[in-house]
Amino acid sequence: MIETGSRFWSALCDSEKRPFAVELDSPAGPDVTKFMAGARELQAHGAEMITVADCPMGRVRVDAGIMACKLRRELGMESLPHMSCRDRNWIAVQSLLFGFVAEGIENMLLVTGDPVPPEYREEAHGVYHFNSRELLRRVRELGLPLRLFAALNVNARNFEVELRRACEKEENGAVGFLTQPVMGSQALENLELARFSLSGRILGGILPIVSEKNALFLRQNVHGVAVDDATVARYVGADREQAEAIAVELCAGYVKAMRPMVDGYYLMTPFGRTALDCRIMDSVRSGQCSVTSDQ
């Protein structure tokens, strides 16, 4: 990895700043109009980087790296495409990385990736020739001008094992971590432990919950997301406007609670609702962070 002129990285290394990287899912088809409109909205509200997941939950979307290149060319935005171990062998990985570097991409998030969902398994099979730690090592050894990030699950049941793996990721080239959503005191305790154990930059995960149904789905179906009963209860009976207000309040509170332990924030966009992300960023930057981590 070599140092470049990344404004995002400079902000991440500035102890007075906490830049926002916002995850925006790429489209499920070739029409990218909504995606680009959302990216422009986020950019206008001060998002310093857009992150793009690599076919999350194993469902087909426009390639994350291609969308990252489009963001850079058309909006001048820094981006962080994800790359999983699920779909590509080492030849395909190298080919894509060379192309990304040629397009000016400076940052990559390398993850093991979700498995192929059951409905696709007759026609598609996961590759998984390596896990994220080995992928990090292999990419580092290529000597490309890429800043490599990795994932950190602060909601892991056995966080000691998760933290040990994170240390191995650092040894293999990771310079920073994006965490799973921080919700509740246990996640904050694990985040604090990670802060003292890891030398890389940490972006604390923020996931706005938009309804009671959404909260229950996340708790039951999404690996690495912990939603407690008290949080679910806050959404019972809430309409869309009320639920979004609750989401802004809760997210701003967790931002305040995790601030001493992170270098930036990783904000996820539920159902493409970029306007909600903008409300959260505006709330944080205006200092309206009144909720504590116990709520």
How would you portray this structure in words?
This protein is of the alpha/beta class and 295 residues long. It has one domain: Alpha-Beta Barrel (TIM Barrel), CATH 3.20.20.220. 43% of the residues lie in helices and 14% in strands. The protein contains 11 helices and 8 strands. The chain has helices at residues 7-12, 33-44, 64-75, 90-102, 132-142, 159-171, 185-197, 212-221, 229-235, 240-258, 274-285, and strands at residues 20-23, 49-52, 79-84, 107-111, 147-152, 176-181, 201-206, 264-268. It has an 8-stranded parallel barrel, surrounded by 6 helices. Helix 5 runs parallel beside helix 6 (159-171). The protein is globular. It starts with 6 loop residues before the first helix and ends in a 10-residue tail after the last helix. 43% of the residues are buried. Residues 288-295 have low confidence and may be disordered.
Descriptive keywords:
TIM Barrel; alpha/beta; 295 residues; 11 helices
Task: Present the secondary structure layout.
Blueprint: H1 7-12, E1 20-23, H2 33-44, E2 49-52, H3 64-75, E3 79-84, H4 90-102, E4 107-111, H5 132-142, E5 147-152, H6 159-171, E6 176-181, H7 185-197, E7 201-206, H8 212-221, H9 229-235, H10 240-258, E8 264-268, H11 274-285
Parallel strand pairs: 1-2, 1-8, 2-3, 3-4, 4-5, 5-6, 6-7, 7-8
Helix pairs in contact: 2-11, 5-6, 10-11
What CATH architecture do you see? Alpha-Beta Barrel
Biggest beta sheet summary = 8 strands, parallel, barrel
Distance between the termini: 41 Å
- Give the mean pLDDT: 91
Q: Portion of residues in helices?
A: 40-55%
CATH class: Alpha Beta
Arrangement of strands in the largest sheet = 1-2-3-4-5-6-7-8
The shape is globular
Oligomer: single chain
